[in-house]
Design a protein that fits this description.
243 residues; alpha/beta; seven-stranded mixed beta sheet; 8 helices; binds adenosine-5'-triphosphate
C-alpha cells in the first residue's frame, strides 16, 4: 500500500549537494507499526517527509495505494495528502491562541468538512486521547504529554490511513513518552498504519517492525521484529552501536 523503489533525494544548495536518500526501497503493508531509527543526518526525516508528500523526491518510484505519486500535480498531491496522511511532530505544532477544540478543527475546516461532522469527529478524538474535559483549554494550560495527545487527536480527526510521526516523544519525559506510545499502539490496533521516527531505542523496540536508515538507505540488517524476540533486539542494538 506504500511502496518506494529506488527513491533518491538530493538537496542542492549553493555549493553543496547532499544525497539525503539513495536508492531507498521500502514496502509498508496496511496496519503496520514501523519504528524508524538511525544516526543523526541519515535521512529519516527526509524519508518521512517524502512519504507524507511534504516534499518531492529526486528520482525513483513512490506508489501510495496504487497512485503513482511522482505523476501528480501539486494540487493532486495536496489532495491525496489531506485524504490519507496525518502528521505528528516533535514540537506538537499547536496554535497557542486557539483552544484544543479549535486546534483540532482548523485542518477539518480547511478540508471543507461541515460543522456537525467536525463536532462529532473532534469530540470523538478528544475522547480517544483522554482529553474530552479539556476542550476549552489553551495548549499552554496542558503538560507536554497532553499537548502531544492533542496533536495526535488533530491528526486522527482527519481519519488518515497513515499516521506519520517524527520524534513524537522527543520533547517528553519517559513517563509521558510511554503514555504517548501506548496511545499510538491503541490507534494502530484500531487499524491505522503508523510510521514513527524515533531516537528512543526503548520505544522503537516496542514497535512490531523496526527499520534503520543509514547514509540514506535502509540498513541491510533491517528486520521484522517480534516483540518477544530478545535476540533480534540485541542484534539491532549491536548494529546501532556499530554505526
Ligand atoms: N532542506 C535541506 N537542504 C539541504 N540539506 C538538507 C535539507 N534537509 C536535510 N538536509 C540534509 O539531508 C541529510 C538528511 O537529513 P535528515 O533531516 O533527513 O536526517 P535525520 O536522519 O532525520 O537527522 P536527525 O536524526 O538529526 O533529525 C542531512 O545531511 C541534512 O543536512
Amino acid at each position: 500500500m506504500l511502496s518506494m523503489k529506488n527513491i533518491s533525494k538530493v538537496y542542492q544548495t549553493e555549493k553543496v549537494q547532499t544525497h539525503a536518500l539513495r536508492d531507498f526501497n521500502l514496502e509498508v503493508k496496511e496496519g503496520e507499526f514501523i519504528a524508524v531509527t538511525g544516526p543523526s543526518g541519515s535521512g529519516k526525516t527526509t524519508f518521512l517527509n517524502i512519504a507524507g508528500m511534504l516534499e518531492p523526491f529526486s528520482s525513483g518510484e513512490f506508489m501510495l495505494d496504487d497512485v503513482n505519486v511522482g505523476t501528480l500535480s501539486d494540487n493532486e498531491r495536496a489532495d491525496l495528502r489531506n485524504q490519507k496522511i496525518g502528521f505528528i511532530f516533535q514540537g506538537f505544532n499547536l496554535i497557542p491562541d486557539l483552544n484544543l477544540y479549535e486546534n483540532i478543527e482548523v485542518p477539518l475546516r480547511y478540508r471543507g468538512i461541515k460543522a456537525a461532522e467536525r463536532k462529532l469527529r473532534i469530540e470523538e478524538c478528544l475522547e480517544k486521547v483522554g482529553l474530552a474535559s479539556r476542550a476549552k483549554h489553551l495548549p499552554q494550560q496542558l503538560s507536554g504529554g497532553q499537548q502531544q495527545r492533542v496533536a495526535i487527536a488533530r491528526a486522527l480527526a482527519g481519519k488518515p490511513r497513515f499516521l506519520l510521526a517524527d520524534e513524537p516523544t522527543g520533547n517528553l519525559d519517559s513517563l509521558m513518552a510511554r503514555q504517548v506510545m501506548e496511545l499510538l499502539e491503541n490507534i494502530n490496533t484500531e487499524g491505522s498504519t503508523i510510521i514513527m521516527v524515533t531516537h528512543d531505542q526503548e520505544l522503537a523496540r516496542r514497535a512490531p517492525r523496526n527499520i534503520q536508515v543509514v547514509d540514506g538507505q535502509l540498513a541491510d540488517f533491517t528486520l521484522y521484529q517480534n516483540k518477544s524476540s530478545d535476540s533480534v533486539s540485541a542484534r539491532v542494538e549491536q548494529s546501532i552501536a556499530e554505526v
